[in-house]
Amino acid sequence: MNETLPSRSPGETDGSPTRPGKEETRTGTAPAGGGTRSAKPRDALFDNAKYLAIVLVAVGHAWEPLRSESRTVVALYTLVYAFHMPAFIIISGYFSRSFDWSPGKIKRLITGVAVPYVVFEVAYTLFTRWSDNEPDRSISLLDPLYLTWFLAALFIWRLTTPIWRALRRPLPLALTIAALATLTPSIGKDLDLHRTLQFLPYFVLGLSLQKKHFEMVRRREVRILAVPVFAGALVMAYWAVTRMNYAWFFHKSSAEDLAAPSWYGPVMTLAVFGCSTVLVAAFVALVPRRRTWFTALGAGTLYGYLLHGFFIQAANHWHWSRNDWFHTPLGEITVTVIAAVVVTALCTAPVRRIFRAAFEPKMDWAFRRQASAPAPASAREPDPAPAPASQQSG
């Protein structure tokens, strides 16, 4: 079953985009003699990974109208969808480890996830009335539209984080829930729960990771091995174009919805999770660790994630893919470059300043004032990885 871009398409860009905010840097310990606390710098690895993943998200959306004409495009599309969303979600889980139900964390969850969800659910509904020629489309906060499904899912995942952190073996339980979701077509569209439940293991995996695990995949031998892993995955994706339904990587349908026997659901849940996890590890291994020209853009990937959808929807409204030239190799490369440039521009500081009120509302008026006090040592995260903002993918 192909993923289409009409209004209710979930935007497999699906990602853990991130936004700048209070959790982007970690405050260090105050010097013994008093003075200002020093903020530890962000880890360039995660910002680089988020930027590269958001580019793949936009490119994947741009490729969607071209899939029927090219087996190569379908193979690349399948490969990208096999790991880009899991990568975002794993990173989101990793940076959610310190989440609890304290007033400050709840405030950041509401202002950084819930409010942008409402804002963009309304914005996309109004926009698709024009782009999809559906002037009577109604606004529904229970039926995530296009890219907003990720915010709804992240809200649920993060809200349940203390539960997963309290369990001894959370990942097997999360995989069981995901497998059972593939057996239940009656779940319905409310809050896109199929995606929320089927992508849950990746978030729980991120919660279970420590910095040492990322260091393991950064070893030289792993980085060398990552190249043939991706090459082999691309060959396998090309072979599977006519043999496998790549919609399994969307994690939004039951086995019955995909016209498969029920027992396929649990089997594919485990198979896809294993495949995606290996590819995410290879992706992280190949991401530059040093600061690059695009490192700073990693702090604004939520902006690129939510805003690029308007460009995609508008382009599809004007039926750009009906031009035969775009279905040639040169045309496909051009589409890829344009998508990458647009989403890159949307992650830049000027764009973030313009749209900050929608992405990072302060809303102090809506919350009780909390007495400020240093967090107890036991509440601090176990390692020094800088925590991205609430949307950390994405």
TrEMBL record:
Keyword Membrane found: yes
GO MF annotation list: acyltransferase activity
Transmembrane segments: 75-96, 108-127, 139-159, 222-241, 261-286, 293-313, 333-355
Presence of keyword Amino-acid biosynthesis: no
Biased composition (Low complexity): 370-379
Keywords (A to Z) from UniProt: Acyltransferase, Membrane, Transferase, Transmembrane, Transmembrane helix
Domain Acyltransferase: start-end pairs: 46-348
Region Disordered, annotated ranges: 1-40, 370-394
Protein name from the UniProt record: Acyltransferase family protein
Organism: Streptomyces incanus
